[in-house]
Every structure is written in C-alpha cells, then in structure tokens.
Specification:
2 domains, 423 residues, two-stranded antiparallel sheet, alpha/beta, globular
C-alpha cells in the first residue's frame, strides 16, 4: 500500500469538509467547467445569469502564476473572485510540484471558495509539461499535490479527473484522490485518449459505479454528454451525482443551465446572446482578452457562420481588434437575424427528434439560435443533422435574397417607367 492509497495524514487547518462546503455554496447543481482562455470572468458572469450555480476559472499554470506577476495579472484580475459578482468560485491549477502548487494557491485563497487540481487535461501541452491527465499513473505525486493543499491552505482543495478503461482501477484512483484530501471530485467520463475527433461518448455508467462505491458523504460532480438543459437532471439521476459540470455544452449555448421552459430561454437567438456577452465584456474592469472573445464569438455563432460565411473571415481578423471592430460584428449579426424575421413564413420552431442509441434525442434548432455542437462519434458523423439544417438554411437565405432582388428589380422598372413618362 503506497502513501497515495493511505488516508489523509496529519490534521488540516479548520475549514469546511466536502458536504459542509457543498451546502454552504448553496448545493450547486449546474457548474461551469474550467476552460483555458474561455471560462474567464465575463463568461462566468454571463453563465451565472443563465443558471450556473458554481463556476471554475480557466486552468492556470501554477509555476507561472506563482512566479510571474504579469501572467498573474493577465489571468486573475482585480474583479476575479469578487464577493458580489464572482462567487461561488473555484480556482483551478495544473502542477507537478507540491511547493509550486501551494505557492500559487496561497495567492488566491482569500479570493475563492476552493482550489482545484487539474488531473484531466489530455492535450499535448499537458503531456509535454507533465500535468493534467498525464499524472494519472503517478499516484504518489498526485497524493502529495492534493495533500499539500489540504494541510496548508485556508480553503478546501478539489480535483477534476478522467477515467481509466477499467472501472475498478478508476474507483481506486478516485479513492486515492479523496483520501489525499479532495473535498469535491469531478469525474469526466472519458479516458485520456478520448479527445478531438476521438472524443466519443462519456461513460455515465462508470461515473455511477465510482459514485456508489465512495463514502456516501463524498461530493461528486459528473462531466460529459450534456447537450441540452433536460440532460442535466437526467445525468444526475443516472450517475447519482450531486451536480453536473459542462464545458463545450456551456460554450456553444450559454443558456444550457436554464431550466427547460421554451426556445427563447433554452435556445436563445445568437444575436441576443452575442450582444449580452459583448456588453458584459465592455463593462468588466481590466483588459479584455481578444483570444477569449474571438473564441466565444466563433462558438456562439457556430451554427450561424456556415450560412453567413462572410462573417467567419471577419471574426478571424480580430486578433488585435478594438471594441469598435467587435461592435460592428455584433451589429451585423443583429441585422442579419432581424432580416430573417422579416419573412412572415420563417420556421422558428425547435423540433425534438426520436430517441437515439445513447438515450437522448437531438433537437432540430434554427441556425440563428444557440445550440450544441456535435462531434463525430465512433466513426459516425453525428452532425449530419446539423449539416442538413445548414444546407436548408443556406437555401432559404438564397431564396430571401432572390426575392429581395426581385423586389428591387420591380422597383427599378417602375422608376424607369416613371422617368420615361416624364421625359
């Protein structure tokens, strides 16, 4: 038995344990995931307006955060963790050195409710830097990282992990993390290899297995396979977890955490959502991140841009753009959506399809409304339906433009006739 599998040693500073902390934070059910350059303050404010109960910061590099004042100021500004606008908040770090992790965490412990260790990042940069999911085989190091914060930090420590192919190994891994001192455990139901076009479906069964074999007072969040608002309760029921965390689902449709009601609440128009986000960015103190804005614009508009293709290139040229450039883009989106509604026969309905093998049903959503993004799954193109929608939308756009052109031609002919009569 290694140190990693032993229970928490020594006594930690007096602070709330898992279930107590969970209740103090209001028993959050809907959680914004930590996302590099994307779960920044403005996005968290937007997400909270649309039903998010708890937010995580983007993943910060512990060594850089602890040693570079410039990096720290760029990543965590004066309003991050503000008691009135940015709580409850968990700050996430990636690290492979306990002392570096503690030094970074000490700098934020008075401005957050907990500090999270990233054990889930599967990207190549994490492999190179030896952090995230590439620590999964080094249980002793993980134990030291978590236990260091558990024993020496004012606020609780939490962790976000991925699963192994073997559910029993995943359970032992989760137990080690909890025993090291983690008060919340987020389980992403995918393995390290499941990323990009190999993402596939998250395994809710393995999340449920782990949850049911951990102590009952353990707080567990589920992550993966949440496309629609209705999926949140379904995920909690099927995994028996305390809450659901969303990353991509939240990015493509910030209204995913709203209670299921109607299309305007659950699938808001892209022009309205884009305007709301942009106004928050302008009102938020500190320098706005063009990287974050560009990414959010692309994702909010992901179903809109294949139809309104000229906007894609325009957004692509915004790397160093000022607010005036962004404002023009938002206005163009507003004008284009307004043009759609000028058609009295526009089909603005959200249609629920038949139940799929994965247990849910896709929705056919108008391309000018926020909606989930579908990846390829097990070699099958899951976004075939979306492609069809976009094709139909493009054809409808051409028809509108043609009709508009016909009206213009008619007006021109009438004008020419009047001129001829006057002459």
């Amino acid at each position: 038995m290694t140190a990693a599998s032993a229970s928490s040693d020594a006594s930690a500073p007096t602070k709330l344990a898992g279930r107590q902390l969970f209740e103090k934070l209001g028993k959050p059910k809907t959680i914004v995931a930590p996302m590099v350059d994307q779960s920044e303050l403005a996005w968290r404010i937007l997400s909270r307006r649309h039903g998010a109960d708890l937010c995580y910061t983007p993943m910060f590099h512990a060594k850089l955060f602890g040693t570079s004042e410039r990096y720290r100021e760029e990543m965590f500004g004066p309003m991050d963790g503000d008691q009135t606008t940015d709580r409850p908040l968990v700050v996430q770090f990636c690290a492979n050195d306990p002392d570096e992790l503690l030094a970074a965490a000490k700098l934020v412990e008075d401005r957050c409710d907990a500090v999270d260790l990233n054990l889930g990042c599967p990207q190549g940069i994490a492999r190179k830097g030896h952090y995230g999911s590439f620590l999964m085989e080094d249980w002793d190091l993980i134990h030291k990282l978590i236990n260091k914060l558990h024993l020496e930090l004012k606020v609780p420590v939490t962790a976000k992990m991925r699963v192994f192919d073997d559910r029993d190994k995943t359970l032992e891994y989760a137990k080690m993390i909890i025993n090291a001192g983690a008060q919340f455990l987020t389980i992403h139901g995918r393995t390290r290899e499941m990323k990009g076009q190999q993402t596939g479906l998250a395994d809710w069964e393995i999340i449920k297995y782990v949850r049911e074999n951990l102590p009952k007072d353990t707080v567990v969040f589920a992550n993966g396979n949440v496309l629609y608002s209705e999926d949140i309760e379904k995920c909690m029921e099927e995994t028996t977890t305390d809450a659901v965390m969303s990353a991509e689902g939240n990015l493509y449709n910030p209204a995913i955490f709203n209670k299921p009601t109607d299309k305007d609440v659950n699938f808001p128009r892209v022009d309205k959502m884009l305007r709301e986000y942009f106004e928050i960015v302008k009102e938020t103190p500190g320098k706005a991140s063009n990287t974050a804005m560009k990414s959010h614009f692309f994702k909010i508009l992901h179903s809109f841009l294949p139809v309104e293709t000229e906007l894609r290139a325009e957004i692509g040229r915004t790397s160093k753009a000022g607010f005036d450039v962004w404002e023009k883009i938002v206005q163009k989106v507003e004008e284009k959506v307004a043009k759609i509604y000028e058609d009295p026969n526009v089909n603005d309905e959200v249609v629920i399809g038949e139940e799929e093998a994965w247990g849910g049903a896709y929705r056919t959503v108008p391309y000018w409304r926020c909606q989930p993004y579908f990846r390829r799954c097990n070699g099958e193109k899951a976004n075939t339906m979306v492609s069809r929608q976009q094709k139909e939308a493009a054809e409808a756009k051409k028809k509108r433009e043609a009709e508009s052109g016909d009206e213009t031609d008619k007006e021109d002919k009438e004008t020419d006739t009047k001129k001829a009569k006057l002459e």
